[in-house]
Design a protein that fits this description.
It is a single chain. The chain has three domains: 142 residues, Chitobiase/beta-hexosaminidase domain 2-like (Chitobiase, domain 2), CATH 3.30.379; 335 residues, Alpha-Beta Barrel (TIM Barrel); 144 residues, Alpha-glucuronidase, C-terminal domain (Alpha-d-glucuronidase, C-terminal Domain). The protein has 22 helices and 14 strands. The site of 4-O-methyl-beta-D-glucopyranuronic acid has 11 residues, from loops.
Amino acid sequence: MALLKLVFLFFLISFSASAQKDYKLWLQYNVVNNSALVSEYKNNLGGIIVLGNSETIRIAQKELQTGFENMLGTILEIKPNIKGENNLIVGSQLDLSSEIKSELQVDLDKINNEGFIIKTISLKNKKQIIITGKNDVAVLYGVFNFLRILQTNKAVKNLNITDSPKINLRILNHWDNLDRTVERGYAGFSLWNWQKLPGFIDQRYIDYARANASVGINGTVLTNVNANALILTPQYLDKVEALANVFRPYGIKVYLTARFSAPIEIGNLKTADPKDPEVINWWKNKAAEIYKQIPDFGGFLVKANSEGQPGPQNYGKDHVDGANMLADAVAPFGGVIMWRAFVYSEHDANDRAKQAYAEFQPYDGKFKKNVIVQVKNGAIDFQPREPFHPLFGAMPKTPLMMEFQITQEYLGFSTHLVFLPKLFQEVLESDTYQKGKGSTVAKVVDGTLYQNKLTGIAGVANIGNDLNWTGHPFAQANWYGFGRLAWNPHLDSETIADEWLRSTFSNDENFVKPLKNMMIESREAVVNYMTPLGLHHIMDTGHHYGPGPWVSNLSRPEWNPTYYHKADKNGIGFDRSKSGTNAVSQYAPEVAKLFDNLETCPEKDLLWFHHVSWDYKLKNGQTLWNGLALKYQGGVNQVKEMQNVWKKSEKYIDSERFNEVKMLLEIQHEETKWWRDACLLYFQQFSGKELPEAVEKPTQTLEYFKSLKFPFAPGNG
Ligand code: GCW
């Protein structure tokens, strides 16, 4: 019995010890085991002097102490004032001595309000390291960046870093419902425990804020864009206020989704017409009420007249009327309205890919100054690959914010390992040519192309109450990577993968190198085994889990996969060229020409823009049918290879995370075969051709794949 107890206890200890690792995300603060580095760190970091005493500064101090203790095994001495050399001086510009300030003036002039400086300077001939910025939150960003230097085992001698975020609003969009289900959430239930708020502050709220601050995320929309008006009632606003209070010292503002019909639902009005004086007044009062409780409330995110959500069009008004009415309500308090451009209508027979542009582009210049239009990265909907949305660059007089999806609605939920920064980077680097060569999407989003003051980027969160936050340990990298790209949309995804691996797992080069390659490859792998060569939207209905290219019975034509792939005996693909729907014309002439012409259209986007025959010759000489089949097989092989790489990583990491990822990769590998077989068997009915040699025989019949049902797939309401 005693032995049993002991075994149990051991199990409990080892379990919770490694479970904590999962929970700790990229803030592991692993012991530095390179002795030369340890002594360098210790020699350069004698103690800290903390200037200021806000809650934010106290958080920064605690973070440094925790980091040091864990990574170097030493307690960092807190000094009341600068004595001796090699101290870390941490505090905002407002708290710096004039001597330090004058040393740093050039750098201070370079950074923006949220930027930071990490610099080795000489004070009275003594070397010191300063971490500063214009305010305490900027200092906190500097501290996290400094700790990243240590976490990634880089040198701290002669530091000279100035860095500022290039985008103002760096926001997570939670599609969290008030009943704690999460639309398209695959990591458990919502973090927000509305029933226990405001009295009970879950430690997770604090840990969530800390994780976000560590990558510079400065806003969170707490509620689903398919909104519930109740969140705007006093009962819920008390709860929102409690969360805002937790997040504030971490530099994170709270935003809410505004249900357009709220004046009717909770305000007892007869209409929600944006031109109705009572409605206008209701929103003004609501905004005032919110700002009284939450003075730094960020504003509203709105999904209107999209997929059945109410909006101004219900009253014969348009998006501009709706957005501007709300903008006026929050303007006196400095709030913003993020108005989504994700619209398509069952009454519009046009190519769905063209509808958002057709509707929004003519509104350019008509929105109030505090409105920013939120545009998904592609014109359809967060597919494994989409060409960039044609609205980017096409509204020079309107701030546009990027909406990425971090949660993997269409990319294997939280069972597939897919490193999304690679996808995000591909979009951000795309050249819109709207102001000549070099007019990248990143420059539209960071405001440099058209000198927009208001800039933003949103990521639909993949976070839930799972122990490891994101369901898949590697999905943490997508949260991390989103934050890093939000800070700097010009960052390279390889750099991000490198940082993340080192901070999350290990600095051992033998681990980092192969794993980094694996992460970078993982995005193309998912495209290959799901939607190669420009295919899109061929997933199963409702839950969007797994393949469903055969689905053709849904009430709205543009909900059916057959609408998108258009496979028939003549070939496959959606003709969006000039001879088709002419969606290409929504791009700048240079880009339109590129996509329109079969010769120049990148093959990765081929079937997005063209319907081509099964015998069409690809650049490598393969027929389209063979090439398509080989891509599917290639994706399966890539995941097999990912499994091999992962197996070799065992000795570098803890067994719990190792096993989790191993199991998940096995599931992923099985599912790659499912995608390959289901899609190829289905398309084969039209091509009438044999599969090339190198493609493995299907594991099941098409009928079998069609019969699969997943009534309780997560994320689907
Ligand atoms: O991707 C689709 C999803 C919906 C989502 C919608 C949107 C929140 O399937 O679940 O609704 O997009 O972005 O509004």
